[in-house]
Design brief:
The chain has 334 residues and is of the alpha/beta class. The protein has two domains: 195 residues, NADH:ubiquinone oxidoreductase-like, 20kDa subunit (Rossmann fold), CATH 3.40.50.700; 120 residues, Irregular (Cytochrome-c3 Hydrogenase, Chain A, domain 2), CATH 4.10.480. Helices cover 24% and strands 11% of the residues. The chain is built from ten helices and eleven strands. Strand 7 and strand 8 form a beta hairpin. The longest helix is centred in the last third of the chain and has 13 residues. The radius of gyration is 22 Å and the shape is elongated. One of its GO terms (cellular component) is cell envelope. Belongs to the [NiFe]/[NiFeSe] hydrogenase small subunit family.
């Protein structure tokens, strides 16, 4: 391994389930190894992919901090556990006696770029849910509050804030695409949105490309699981508000939550894990959903929804509450 050439990436996992790593391993066309090699990305260490373990891994971390190995991109997966009392000792990096909190701060100080991989490392995510006994947070955000473990003013060695590749888990291509842009020098702060997510995927909505869009247009809604209709009105779907391209950049070439019959829970956003109600439920006031589509004024939504429902074709009205197509589209006679 020539650690001074190529684009060096170090990947560590903090307080999380490892789902983003498992998602990354599903990268395809080409696969992960070929993608990294083709982009000139040198993986210094990853817990699932590297041979080094124990003292060998620790020596890599020490060499990076000492400046003996250059670190272009530090990837942190999972929330950082700050407790108890800001000591970080709820998570000791095995074999070092030091909190992961301290390792992350030392490594981020020398990293060219620092990336929060997944919503946990970005904002806190699932690990920060409930009353958060471990005081978990993201690298530069504690949910919607700026700061996190690195502080609001943090800038990497290449003068960038933390890049939040948010998602629970992330799409593998969101990670590889971001890393490849960084290797080419084709990424700047203007390529991040207000939550510091790469705009390559965050400038889209999950609603784009949803296979249920025809039902949405006519407000033909599903009323229970397995039905074909739009899941916004009754089933808690947030696809019209969630920033991601899940239905146009499919998972494993063919899937997404909505295509699998599950409502979007907006997992790329801070605080998604605590919506204040059950995930598969749409809270309403006077029959109007509280969470309206992005950029949609309430008065317009009410007016358009009323018109749409009045114009709903019989085909969509019946199919929306069925688990298969019971009324096919009619052929139009010329």
């Amino acid at each position: 391994m020539n650690s001074q050439s190529g684009f060096n990436v170090l990947w560590l996992q903090s307080g999380g389930c490892g789902g983003c790593s498992l998602s990354l391993l599903n990268a395809e066309s080409p696969n992960l190894v070929h993608t990294l090699e083709g982009a000139g990305i040198n993986l210094l260490w990853h817990r699932m992919l590297s041979e080094e373990s124990g003292s060998e891994m620790v020596r890599i971390l020490q060499a990076v901090i000492a400046g003996e190995i250059k670190l272009d991109a530090l990837c942190i997966e999972g929330a950082i556990l700050r407790g108890p009392k800001d000591s970080g000792r709820f998570h000791i990096l095995a074999g070092t006696g030091r909190p992961m909190l301290d390792w992350v701060r030392d490594l981020a100080a020398v990293a060219g770029y620092t990336l929060g991989i997944g919503t946990g490392a970005s904002f806190g995510g699932i690990t920060a849910g409930g009353y958060n006994p471990t005081d978990a947070c993201g690298l530069q955000f504690a949910e919607t509050e700026r700061g996190g473990v690195l502080g609001e003013a943090y800038r990497s060695a290449y003068d960038m804030p933390v890049i939040n590749v948010a998602g629970c888990p992330t799409h593998p291509n969101w990670i590889t695409e971001t890393l490849m842009q960084l290797t080419l020098g084709d990424f700047s702060e203007s390529d991040l949105d207000e939550w510091q997510r790469p705009r390559g995927y965050a400038d889209h909505l999950v609603h784009h490309g949803c296979p249920r869009n025809e039902y949405y247009e006519f407000k033909a809604s599903a009323e229970e699981h397995s039905q074909l209709g739009c899941m916004m009105e009754h089933m808690g779907c947030l696809g019209t508000q969630a920033h991601a391209d899940c239905n146009t950049r499919l998972w494993n070439g063919e899937g997404s939550c909505l295509r699998g019959g599950y409502a979007c829970i907006n997992c790329t956003a801070p605080g998604f894990q605590e919506p204040g109600h059950r995930f598969q439920e749409t809270p309403k006031i006077a029959g109007i959903p509280i969470g309206l589509p992005t950029d949609m004024p309430k008065a317009w939504f009410v007016a358009l929804a009323s018109l749409s429902k009045a114009a709903t074709p019989k085909r969509l009205r019946q199919n929306a509450v069925s688990d298969h197509i019971v009324v096919p589209p009619h052929s139009k006679k010329k």
